[in-house]
Amino acid sequence: MSVAIGLTSCKDNNTPSVTKFSIKMTDAPGAYQSLMLNVKEIQVLTSEGTSTLDVGDNRFDILKFRMGKDTLLASQDIPSGQLQEIRLVLNETGNTVKVDDVTYNLTTPSGQSSGVKLKVNADLTSGVAYTLLLDFDAARSVVKTGNGKYILKPVIRAIPQAVSGAMKGLISPAASNPKIYAITGTDTIGTISDSTGNFYFPGLKAGTYKVNVEPISPYQPKSIENVSVVNGSVKDLGTVTIK
After folding, report:
1. Which of 118, 211, 123, 130 has the alpha carbon at shortest distance from 167?
2. CA distance 83 to 12
3. What was the pLDDT predicted at 13?
4. The pLDDT value given to residue 202
């Protein structure tokens, strides 16, 4: 299954090179009493290599996560870059389906031992958090054989989305060595500029911010109002001049 998407990308030598990446699963219902999945690991393939996401002890009834509900499988930082493929690897045991009060073990075809492969085309922006929602089609994923057994052939739709934005800028002169604060409502997030004057706020929730720049003496503080941050993109404030 292939899912093609386009998400805003922005790379900068002065910004982090990792992306907060989470994977959740939800269910498209099937006519079963329960459908237990035993996830071993998730592999994320990007242009920067392969990352293996630890899912811990993750055996769950997927039928409990439908109608807008989902369950978190894994969440960690991975290298930013071009997202290419997701591999959902299930344990060989612990996958079961319950039908008419009888529980059956689900076997998985040997060809899927390396994981269920989902092609995904997306740019992962440095410092922006992303969630990939795996929509598991229970009705099409469980196949009854002629001898009364059941086989698990997962049919999954991948739905990626950016769940945060970011902000960057350049303080001039860099010697003003300021602290920078991004403020929205009652939330305040702080950072400092580097030796060249660049600053970066990763993982900001979408909204309108006030940015306060507080340099060392004798430079004067400066405020920037109504800075809009949207999911999936980096707001560039350009050069902020301090006097």
Report:
1. 211
2. 18
3. 46
4. 85
In sequence order, the β-bridge partners of residue 137 are: 28
CA–CA distance, 202 with 222 (Å, rounded to integer): 21
- What is the pLDDT, as a whole number, of residue 111? 52
| pLDDT at site 17 | 84
Give the alpha-carbon dihedral of 79, 75, 162, 212, to 10 degrees: -80
3-state SS record for the chain = CEEECCCCCCCCCCCCCEEEEEEEEEEECCCCCEEEEEEEEEEEEECCEEEEEEEEEEEEEHHHCCCCCCEEEEEEEEECEEEEEEEEEECCCCCEEEECCEEEEEECCHHHCCCEEEEEEEEECCCCCEEEEEEEEHHHHEEECCCCCEEECCCEEEEEEECCEEEEEEEECHHHCCEEEEEECCEEEEEECCCCCEEEEEEECCEEEEEEEECCCCCCCEEEEEEEECCCCEEEEEEEECC
With CA atoms as reference, report the closest residue to 82 among 115, 119, 31.
Answer: 119
Q: Is the pTM of this model over 0.90?
A: no
- Considering only CA atoms, which of 22, 64, 69 is closest in space to residue 44? 22
- Calculate the alpha carbon distances from 241 to 4, 176, 178 in Å: 41, 10, 11
* C-alpha to C-alpha distance for 132 and 157, rounded to whole angstroms: 10
Weakly modelled stretches of the chain, pLDDT under 50: 1-13, 15
pLDDT at 127: 83
